[in-house]
Amino acid sequence: MKDTKIAVQEIRAFNRFYTDIIGLLDAHLLNSAYSLSEVRTMYEIYTGKSVQASQIMTAMHIDKSYLSRILKKLTQEGLISKTPSEEDARASLISLTEEGLKVFKTLNKASDEQIDGLISSLSPRKLEQLVNHMQAIQEILQHK
Amino acid sequence: MKDTKIAVQEIRAFNRFYTDIIGLLDAHLLNSAYSLSEVRTMYEIYTGKSVQASQIMTAMHIDKSYLSRILKKLTQEGLISKTPSEEDARASLISLTEEGLKVFKTLNKASDEQIDGLISSLSPRKLEQLVNHMQAIQEILQHK
DNA sequence: ACTAAATAGTGGACTTTGTCCACTAAGTAT
DNA sequence: ATACTTAGTGGACAAAGTCCACTATTTAGT
């Protein structure tokens, strides 16, 4: 009982710590021409190859009208394209255009480099430990 | 070189994973009568006991005019109070009122309970491991 | 097949959140 | 005394996100 209470405090301390890290990393993207949500949307399309808006919605836990506007903007900028779904006439399948892929890869590379900077001073040993801790946390929290 | 590349991808996977967790936890606070920034502001005042606006600003990496408005709102709601600083006539020292402390503690307790829910299904052993991993990550990333 | 309910997506109207800038007042340095 | 910096406020605006109503399909129940 008491251990749990202490654990909760320590988890919350980590959450604050990691919120700051993520905020720092995100700040970088905010200086790009695209918003966080736009980049995340591109990411979802990129990894899904060809997805429905509804899939992005659930993946991002985002409002459908908000997403609709994001997709509209990305379409207008020529970064994504929609083709009507054959299974469902209400839906379309969204994919990155060549240009969209190019833009996404550039942003993605910048994010990689940022992480690179974060870990550049770590020894290979420490880096390996870091990754192991992260994977362990995911495993523990995923199976609940 | 190559290991680093893989590590970067794994760190980014963790970041996405943990961003979702934090988002989930924050969603809860968003249903409260206070915004995330307001709660975070109260937290800073609570832990600092009596702080200057500029301290909150740097702690939260927040725009000063934005903070000014948040403080104004919290003052109007009777949650915080300002007393002129004796060292610097431009600044004031901010602290939680009795009411503010009450509100903050309620929110804080709700956050605790939320974490509780997140870990309720974990064995004491797993919970201990989780906390250890979190602390290890902080140590590794802090000393860089 | 026929109606009712659910789902996919769009757009209007709005609120919340956050930014940029200019400004006052006080402190700091030369 | 003068210039520079710092603390905080407020106007004006932009960006982000929410809520609701609506159309067009698809799905389920009878």
Automatic annotation (TrEMBL), chains A, B:
One of its GO terms (molecular function) is DNA binding. This is DNA-binding MarR family transcriptional regulator. The keyword Transcription regulation applies. Pfam families: MarR (PF01047). Gene3D superfamilies: Winged helix-like DNA-binding domain superfamily/Winged helix DNA-binding domain. SUPFAM superfamilies: Winged helix' DNA-binding domain. Residues 1-139 form the HTH marR-type domain. It comes from the Bacteria.
